[in-house]
Design a protein that fits this description.
The chain is mainly alpha-helical. Among the domains are: about 5-55, Ubiquitin-like (UB roll); about 65-155, Type II secretion system (T2SS), domain F (Receptor-associated Protein); about 265-350, Receptor-associated Protein (Up-down Bundle). About 75% of the residues lie in helices and about 5% in strands. The protein has 17 helices and three strands. The protein has helices at about 25-35, 50-55, 65-80, 85-95, 100-110, 115-120, 130-140, 145-200, 205-220, 225-240, 245-255, 260-280, 285-295, 300-315, 320-325, 330-345, 345-400; strands spanning about 5-10, 15-20, 40-45. Helix 9 crosses helix 17 and helix 13 (about 285-295) packs antiparallel against helix 14. It is extended and about 95 Å long.
Length: about 400
Amino acid sequence: MPTFRYSAYNAGGSPITGTIEADSAREARARLKKDSLYPREIVALDDTSAGVGWRLFRRRIGLAEISLVTRRLATLAGSAVPIFEAISTLYEQEAPGELKQVLGRVRERLAEGSTLAKAMAGEPHVFSESFTSMVAAGEASGALEIILERLADFLEDQEEVRSRITTSLAYPVLMVIVGSGVMIFLLAVVVPKIVVIFEQNKATLPLITLLLIKTSNLIRTGWWALLLFGAVGVLAWKKASKQESMRRKIDALQLKIPLLGPLFRRLILARFAKILGLLLTSGVPIMKALEITGEVVVNRSYRLFFKTAREDLAEGGSLSSSLRASTLFPPLLVHMVAVGEQGGKLEEMLLKAAKAYEKEFTSSVARFMALLEPLMVLAMGVAVGIVVLAVLLPIFQLNELIK
């Protein structure tokens, strides 16, 4: 039976805390009231701060799982099954784990009279604001099953993009790990044994060999300093990245990185057009849709634009004019938005633009990876070649002296 931690007031008005076992938060609340306690907060014990250590090792709910649950919920809603019964069915079918607990909490909120959107909004780590806003719009318009189908499609597309990026990066990451391991082995094990021969002959060593020897000594004797320096660098980076001004500079720099910058831009544009188009299609007002889109798009440069765009729209301007005034959006997207506004089909044009930029992003990733792989092989060859050259040059000099 689940355990809940509660904070409540007794009959005298004094605060009291404790734990109670119950099948649900609703039952726990009823039992506390029966004991003349007036609950202020009831939280499952797994969700309190006492469970922080466990949450660090708990498996995170993936987009694939959320999209599957959304698809099943859309099917049940389309079959005229009441939402509470649909969520209960999903809860009973789900295997024990984090997602089952989330569905259980959503079901409890529904039983207490909450709407589906508000019940899901209580789980922000699973259901984003854009997700819950579209669900709320679907409930208000009576087209919840259609909205859920669109959400499932969107989540599946996002998972496909993420999977494609992960798969593309697998080989380069493996190359970096193997290459780094080979270099460390050469510098820490092989080079010191060869250097002993040079030191015994007291030969004058070339500059490249001296640099290699110093690097080898640094790795063998100063590895702890390198680790310390790396740890300090990581901590400094995390601290600096929490500052809003620094984050803005980093985000602006991301868009200017050669080769990678255009990739980031296409991905952001595709995400912007897709989310804004889906929100508008679902009946979310454009001001609210822009606010949600600005939160979903993580790049600060684009977030700042969305804030300005909302101000322009509030003053009677148009979205296309705001896009045209910014250098962050290409002319093609601006033109499609302007045509959509004039024809009253803004959401349709945004979804078409999103599909186009997703295709551009996919092809760009394929070209980038096709270029990156031979470059990494070449870099590894150059690094190993430098080590070999630094070792062979003194040997050639010794041979010349012997002659």
